[in-house]
């Protein structure tokens, strides 16, 4: 038998090593993709909320001992798959927005998924930067790096994983202390704990932190159990007010729609539903966000609505576009108005948090040439509106209704500011028009987001979605009434409220909590990047 020479042995060893490296890289990639899929499940179906607590484990295995470049790539792959599953409705949005073909809409949506997915990549790189120098602090650095990277990454809205937990009522109780971002941290901490237990990497300081982290998770749920019972008992003893919600399920349209056949601006279809709800005892009735109603522009509409409201026993909250002259220049506002029982406009709220590209163009996109491109693409959907200047509330017999429009519900600190320190009797009213996203999971995601805002601030909440599912929720997060999605509906709900109770620790300290998280991450990064002292 011929002896194998040294060159052949060296070649075989090199080939075997290359195969192992490729297999390891493929395994890492598959784990990252699995994490992205698991993390997206609760956004598609809220009943799968448990997946958000363990979905980071495969990514942690993939990131173990990875380089910064590998961490960036793995995080990007995970984030892209996550956004494909979470925001698959971007395809429908682009189709309804521009009437483009499915392939073109899919291409544009893919660009969004790739861009947004990079937020996870940024978090993974930050985590690995810290972990290479301070591996014993992985339980702290992993949640901080990922949550804050997602919060600061420039997208339309901050990403909060805790907003998939609305169906897990016990888990969301603690957000009244630390907000949705605090629950995000806890969910990632749980995955990191599970990873360390599976790795059996629990020696020294890591083991001590693991015990402390496990105790923190236990304390969170014990607090949730007590808080849930407390707020349920409180709500059961409160007075109620009967409220009516009108869900018209308008079709998405890029141009201002004409009234349905048989109706007019002066006599809208929603007014018929309002009359029925008023006759059933509704103290006030709300209409959702709408494309255009004509109330602020047309005297005939104002007069006709006043005449019809006079025949009812309910106040009316409605949404419309309001145009006012400001320094001789017409400015439009996204406005929610309050019509009293006498038919007159009592008060109004102008939307403060505007949607980029939908209600205003960020400065960069107004530059010559680029402005032409954005206007051409967004067309009639791009509707420059003015920025509201102040929070308001509408007082009705001890209840103080705090109105917010569309995705203002996505900003926890903003909603906490609207509730303020004087929260007695306040009730959140969100109105939105989510039909742009088709029959997808997006309206359910929006609904869940609003429920978390109610718990954060410990106030009752109503979210009226044009195409459903609309919901009424208690300060505990329990939904007490709702409507089916993608259908026309009317809802009567006897909503409990307290003229003297409301607000939470988070309501009063929302900004301080944010700075605490940011400072903690900055300290960890500083320690990790500080040059080692030479001997």
From TrEMBL:
GO terms classed as biological process: lipoprotein biosynthetic process
Membrane topology, from the record: Multi-pass membrane protein
Gene3D superfamilies: Carbon-nitrogen hydrolase (3.60.110.10)
Enzyme class: transferase
Pfam family, one: LNT_N
Function of the molecule: Catalyzes the phospholipid dependent N-acylation of the N-terminal cysteine of apolipoprotein, the last step in lipoprotein maturation.
Protein name as annotated: Apolipoprotein N-acyltransferase
Natural source organism: Halopseudomonas pachastrellae
Gene (UniProt): lnt
């Amino acid at each position: 038998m011929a002896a194998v020479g040294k060159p052949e042995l060296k070649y075989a060893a090199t080939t075997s090593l290359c195969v192992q490296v490729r297999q390891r890289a493929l395994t890492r990639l598959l784990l990252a993709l699995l994490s992205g899929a698991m993390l997206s499940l609760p956004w598609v179906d809220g009943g799968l909320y448990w997946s958000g607590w363990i979905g980071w484990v495969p990514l942690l295995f993939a990131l173990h001992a990875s380089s910064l470049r590998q961490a960036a790539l793995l995080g990007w792959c995970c984030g892209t798959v996550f956004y494909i599953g979470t925001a698959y409705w971007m395809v429908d949005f682009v189709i309804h927005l521009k009437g483009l073909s499915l392939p073109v809409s899919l291409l544009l949506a893919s660009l969004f998924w790739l861009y947004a997915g990079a937020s996870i990549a940024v978090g993974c790189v930050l985590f690995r930067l810290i972990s290479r120098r301070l591996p014993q602090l992985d339980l702290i650095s992993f949640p901080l790096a990922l949550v804050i990277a997602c919060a600061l990454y420039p997208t339309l809205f901050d990403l909060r994983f805790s907003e998939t937990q609305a169906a897990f009522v016990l888990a969301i109780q603690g957000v009244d202390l630390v907000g949705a971002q605090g629950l995000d941290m806890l969910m990632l901490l749980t995955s990191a704990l599970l990873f360390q237990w599976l790795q059996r990497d629990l020696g020294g300081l890591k083991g001590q932190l693991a015990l402390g982290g496990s105790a923190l998770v236990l304390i969170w749920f014990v607090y949730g159990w007590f808080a849930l019972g407390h707020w349920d008992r409180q709500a059961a003893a409160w007075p109620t007010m009967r409220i009516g919600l009108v869900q018209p399920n308008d079709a998405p349209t890029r141009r201002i729609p004409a009234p349905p056949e048989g109706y007019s601006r002066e006599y809208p279809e929603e007014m018929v539903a309002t009359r029925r709800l008023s006759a059933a005892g509704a103290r006030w009735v709300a209409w959702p966000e709408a494309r255009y109603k004509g109330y602020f522009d047309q005297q005939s509409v104002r007069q006709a609505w006043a005449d019809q409201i006079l025949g009812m026993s309910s106040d009316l909250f409605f949404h419309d576009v309001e145009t006012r002259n400001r320094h001789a220049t017409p400015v439009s506002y996204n406005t929610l108005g309050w019509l009293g029982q006498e038919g007159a406009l009592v008060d109004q709220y102008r939307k403060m948090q505007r949607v980029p590209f939908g209600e205003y163009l960020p400065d960069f996109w107004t530059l010559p040439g680029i402005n032409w491109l954005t206007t051409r693409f967004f067309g009639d959907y791009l509707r420059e509106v003015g920025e509201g200047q102040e929070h308001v509330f509408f007082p009705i017999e001890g209840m103080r209704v705090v109105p917010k429009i569309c995705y203002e519900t996505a900003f926890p600190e903003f909603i906490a500011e609207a509730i303020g320190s004087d929260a007695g009797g306040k009730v959140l009213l969100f109105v939105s028009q989510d039909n742009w996203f088709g029959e997808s999971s997006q309206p359910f995601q929006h609904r869940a987001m609003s429920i978390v805002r109610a718990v954060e601030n410990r106030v009752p909440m109503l979210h009226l979605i044009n195409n459903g599912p609309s919901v009424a929720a208690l300060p505990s997060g329990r939904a007490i009434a709702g409507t089916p999605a993608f259908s026309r509906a009317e809802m009567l709900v006897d909503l409990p409220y307290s003229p003297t109770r409301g607000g939470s620790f988070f309501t009063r300290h929302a900004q301080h909590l944010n700075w605490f998280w940011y400072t903690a991450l900055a300290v960890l990064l500083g320690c990790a990047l500080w040059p080692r002292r030479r001997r």
